[in-house]
Write a structure and sequence with these properties.
Elements lengths: L2 H20 L9 E5 L6 E4 L15 E4 L4 H4 L5 H13 L5 E5 L2 H7 L11 H4 L6 E3 L9 H11 L4 E4 L3 E6 L2 H23 L9 H12 L2 H18 L6
Parallel strand pairs: 5-6
Antiparallel strand pairs: 1-2, 1-4, 2-3, 4-7, 6-7
Amino acid sequence: MTALDEKAARINLAAAFRLAARLGMHEAVANHFSLSVSEDGSRFLINPKWRHFSRIRASDLVLVDTTKPVSTITQDLDPTAWAIHGQLHRQHPKAHAALHLHPIYSTTISTLSDPTIYPIDQNTARYFRRMAFDTHYGGMADSEAEGARLASLIKDKTRLMMGNHGVLVVAPTIGEAFDDMYTLERACQLLVTAYSTGKELSILSDEIAEKTARDWEGYTDFSIQHFEELKLILDREEPDYAE
């Protein structure tokens, strides 16, 4: 990736942090987003240790080079950032963008004995049979072994429901990943709200749910444009994100 591409990657990733904070999806100064700047995933950008999402600028992002000694990599990172994202980019080099959050509604669903996102509307149907699940929460994910275990669960999926923990989304671009996380949280909000009524869910048929999920998969331009539109708001209201 060229220097110009890295600059663009920094701006896009910084925008994702600012937008996540605006939507209230951040968790104090925890959680991490990463974005590859090499095809093999050996070099990626990630947020520095304990920096609030709402203050992150493009120049603040840490460039990680996994070909270097671990001691030189982790000094500016939260241990969980290295544990999860280091292993994720190693095992899934095509997953250029990786977003890990503890949003209220998605995390609520992750705490249920049945964390399935049932297809009860268009948003929830986006995830029909398209989530990987981790049902063995083992505390803070601050070891390479735990990071490797989590990364291995994704397999051919792009979303991981992390039991009693949160969610992880990967995608080829930051725009696709951000839109997916946005819609995933809205889907879980709708499902939690439906559960709260105490009424029986009206679940879509497998045929309709599958058709809807496939239709979503054809809308990558929609996802990317959603992110670009949100960036235009930042350009006007928080232009320092790109510095």
